[in-house]
Amino acid sequence: MRFDDLLHPTPQGLYCPPGDFFIDPVAPVPRALVTHGHADHARAGHGAVMATAQTLDIMAIRYGKDFTGTRQLAEGPVEVNGVRVTFGPAGHVLGSAQIGLEHRGMRITVSGDYCRHPNPACAPWEPLPCDVFVTEATFALPVFRHPAPEGEVDRLLTSLAAFPDRTHMIGAYALGKAQRVIALIRAAGWDRPIYIHGALEALCRYHVEQGVDLGDLRPATGKDLTRADYAGQIVIAPPSAFNSPWVRRFADPLIGFASGWMQIRNRAKARGVELPLVISDHVDWPDLTRTVEELAPEEVWITHGREDALLRWCEMTQRVGRPLRLVGYEDEVPE
Predict the structure, then answer these.
(1) Is the separation of the CB atoms in 44 and 37 below 8 Å?
(2) 328 found inside a domain
(3) Is 332 inside a domain boundary?
(4) 193 shares a domain with 287
(5) Which SUPFAM superfamilies match (predicted)?
(6) Is 126 found in the same domain as 22?
(7) 227 and 179 share a domain?
(8) Which of 41, 99, 133, 141 is least enclosed, having the fewest CB within 10 Å?
């Protein structure tokens, strides 16, 4: 039996023939195993979905309670048509998991999206031993070396002290990034209210229910607040909100954006970002290559991002690399 017999790419996504299921499929399928709740991995309309309890909850929040025919909770190793399936923490967002498959002596780990840096908003990454490691390649270029996120938050607080008359508006994706940024701001000592866009409220509330301390959060649409009241305050919103008239209600907005892509100055400039915060929920180049070295798989399968540099690195370090070229996966979904 070859590795391809246990898992291989199809137009719908990665398919496991002996288990008869897909992992993070891009189209409705009878049975899906889902790594986490971001929309490029978790879609509605499957016959059955197996995922962590938090991912199932998040999918219900985002898509409605009828997002799938059957929910299957991933608790400990389970057998799916003779394939042993294990969900292990990925460190990406709340509920995120790597999915390990074992069958006839072969082990494949599908990482989904993962991050090695501690994240106060989710469980930390844990290694799943494997013969084949399926890795994302979002930031798979040697130039991507993310700074410590705590230092980026210090830059935000320094800016607030320097410009107390301006509203600091930080763009952050609704699931994961927003809550991580808020938790980091709290850890840095900011105990004042943080104002959030309505699109973040449900997921922030769920994080709090799951034990993530986000402090005093208030809606950024308070009718009793004037433009002057928002001076010197922090507002967190989806990046798309900054292209709407909604921004005008705030005091001389200073636009920030929390993303690994903010390391590229031209991207920040093109978005009109005055305060780029390099905070990523994905592995950078050093953490990606370190992960492969530590796991030491027989093969590295690469998806969802920049494949060429990682393939070249595999070749130079005498590893077997394979590009999967799956369609339908994005670097980071602008939600």
Answers:
(1) no
(2) no
(3) no
(4) no
(5) Metallo-hydrolase/oxidoreductase
(6) yes
(7) yes
(8) 141
312 and 182 both lie in a single domain: no
- Write the DSSP string, 4-56: HHH-EEETTEEEETTTTEEES-SS--SEEE-S-SSTTT--S-EEEEEE-HHHH
List, in order, residues 6 or more apart from 240 with CB less than 8 Å away: 334
The tally of domains found in the chain comes to 2
List alpha helices for the chain, DSSP H. 3-6, 53-63, 149-162, 177-187, 201-209, 265-270, 285-295, 308-316
Element (H, E) at 321: strand 320-323
DSSP state of 64: -
- What pLDDT does residue 327 have? 56
Q: Which helix (DSSP H) or strand (DSSP E) does residue 134 occupy?
A: strand 132-137
Q: Are strands 31-33 and 21-23 parallel, antiparallel or unpaired?
A: parallel
335 in any annotated domain: no
Q: Which domain holds residue 313?
A: 3-143+282-323
Q: Are 146 and 313 in contact (CB under 8 A)?
A: no
State how far the Cα of 288 lies from the Cα of 286, in Å rounded to an integer: 5
Predicted confidence (pLDDT) per residue in 231-254, tens digit: 999 999 999 999 889 998 999 999
- Within a domain: residue 331? no
How far does CA 176 lie from the centroid of its chain? 6
Count Cβ atoms below 10 Å from residue 20 Cβ, excluding itself.
14
Summarised one tens digit per residue, pLDDT across range 130-156 is 999 999 999 999 999 999 999 999 999
- Which tokens hold the place of 38? 């971001």
Q: What is the number of residues in the chain?
A: 335
